[in-house]
């Protein structure tokens, strides 16, 4: 099913471009959000960018693995990209960051509503 790989690489390449643009805007925009919120959003964008990038690299490396003739190059490619270790780490970092972002927003909303009721 080569069309699945083409769709996967296309979507993840689009994700790399979009997350790169969002990261650029977040880093060079004027300070409009609190530092904690902005830092969590930047971390989420970096995690998503790395996840998309590793998926693109691992998919391309899986199709081009026969081109690597040196043993050390093949071992590095297999361990890092073919075993999906980097993708799992990036996914885990993204999920943890989303949980922290959600908790931060939840406590900000709860503290605002509790102040307005008292």
Can you summarize this structure?
The chain is an all-alpha fold and 118 residues long. It has helices at residues 2-28, 35-63, 71-82, 85-117. Helix 1 (2-28) packs antiparallel against helix 2 and helix 2 (35-63) crosses helix 3 (71-82).
Give structural notes.
With 118 residues, the protein is mostly helical. It has one domain (2-117). Helices cover 86% and strands 0% of the residues. It is built from 4 helices and no strands. It has helices at 2-28, 35-63, 71-82, 85-117. Helix 1 runs antiparallel to helix 2 (35-63). The model has no long low-confidence stretch (mean pLDDT 79).
Label this structure with key terms:
0% strand; 118 residues; mainly alpha
Task: Draw up the topology in text.
Layout: H1 2-28, H2 35-63, H3 71-82, H4 85-117
Helix pairs in contact: 1-2, 2-3, 2-4
């Amino acid at each position: 099913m080569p069309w699945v790989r083409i769709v996967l690489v296309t979507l993840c390449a689009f994700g790399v471009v979009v997350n790169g643009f969002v990261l650029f805007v977040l880093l060079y925009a004027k300070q409009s959000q609190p530092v904690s919120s902005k830092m969590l959003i930047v971390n989420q964008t970096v995690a998503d960018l790395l996840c998309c990038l590793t998926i693109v690299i691992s998919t391309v490396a899986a199709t081009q693995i026969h081109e690597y003739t040196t043993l050390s190059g093949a071992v590095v490619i297999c361990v890092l990209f073919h075993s999906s270790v980097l993708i799992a780490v990036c996914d885990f970092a993204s999920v943890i960051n989303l949980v922290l972002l959600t908790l931060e927003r939840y406590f900000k909303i709860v503290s605002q509503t509790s102040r307005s009721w008292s």
